[in-house]
Every structure is written in structure tokens, then in C-alpha cells.
Amino acid sequence: MRIRIRHETRYDYDREVSFSSQLLRLTPLDHTGQRVVRWHVTADGDRALARSDDGYGNVIHMAATSRAHAGASAIAEGEVETSDTSGVVRGALERLIPLYFLRGTPATTPDAALAELAAEMARRDDELERMHELMLEIHERVDYELRATTADTTAAEAFAKGRGVCQDHTHIFLAAARATGVPARYVSGYLAPLSGQATSDASHAWAEAYIPDLGWVGFDIANRICPTETYVRVAIGLDALEAAPVRGVRRGGVEETLRVTLEVRQEQQ
Known about the structure:
269 residues, alpha+beta, Immunoglobulin-like, C8orf32 fold, 2 domains, 5-stranded antiparallel β-sheet, 5 helices, globular
């Protein structure tokens, strides 16, 4: 499948600021089942950005402006060819051993209720079966609902509320999986939606768990499936903060408005 993506992020400030900077994790990489045909990232029109990477191997671009300005924008655009690997990730750049992804974060720290969920899942010996069951259980207990939570909502809070979006589903999965001793990580990327799939006007998110003798396997809790050829994998981290598509800072105490325009569609090959 060939998937075309255009992802535009725009910040507007209520008055000029003297400095702003955006860290962009918007560039997919090649691995088994995913090949980048073309891709480019620009800022403020057509300004080219230097490419680097972080400790996870995610591609990053930094868009910084040190003159007076009232807005900032970035566009990532390109095409990616994909094929179905049943969620198994092979051939990806791996800079850290799987055990690193047992680490918790403030967003993924389990409370008593999540610890109980993990204990229920731990009764199964087969780790792959356990992760599939965990995915289905979270989907059953936490309804997908836009604007039910915020970017700062923790796994424990979303689980208690019983509502959330893909970020919340993923954080809950990470908290419970790690509590059972299974390394798990956050994945940000894109989804070319099919009928009945959960998506939004922002990038998508899912989890990957490390299964012995198989490797990293993806689990999209919001849609109750392992990623297929409709998914484009972009960045990984311990939680949403570390894999966020865009993170920004500015100098100046102003109000800002963020607008995201995302187009993801299948192309004829």
C-alpha cells in the first residue's frame, strides 16, 4: 500500500515573541514492511531544516526562530509504501536493549487499579497471548472519546475515568505490560483510516511489546488490532512525551493557538 501524508502544525501568538523553537519528530524510517518513497520537512514556508536523531534513533528536526515573530509553522509531507507484517517490527533501528523499556514514567506509573489489571493478565504464561488479552481488556474498559482527557492525563487517571483517546489507551497498556515484566514502548505515527477505525485530526499512537523469540510487536488498543499496512510508524519512546511529533518552547509570556492539519490517504500504485 502507498500512503500519502501531509502534516502541518501552526502556532499563532497573540503578540510577537522574540524566540521560539519546535522539536519535530515527523520523519518515518525504513524497516521491514515500511519503505519511505519520499519525505521532506520544512518550516515557515519552505525553510529547510537540519536533520539529526535522538537516543532512540528517531529522526528529529529543530525549527528555531530568533527574531520577532507572531507565528511559527512546520510541514512534513511525503509518501510511504507499506505491507502487512501482522504487527511484528523487524529491521528497525534499535539503539537500546528491550529491558530499557521496563522503565516507568510519571504518565505510565500504575496505581492500585492498574496493578490489579496487570495481576489479572499475569495469570497467563504465554506473553503474546497475555498482550493480546490486555489490549482487548483495555479497549473494553476505556471508551474511545475525543476531548475526554488532556495531554497531561496519566494512565491511572484515564483508566479510572474509563474514557480517553489513543494516547491514554497506549499509556494504560504500557503501565500494565511493564508491571507484568514485559518491556513496552510508545509509538507515534499515522493511520490511513478504514471504515470503523478510530482516528482523529492528529497523529495516531499505539504500543509495542517485546515478545521473546518474536521481537517487538505492535498493539493498537483503540482499534483492537495489531498494526497492518495502513499504519506508518514514525517515533518511539517511553511515553507520549518522548515520542511527541512536535514539542515547542518560546520566549515571551503570550497566549498561543495551535492548529494541526493532517491529511493521510491511500494512493494508487
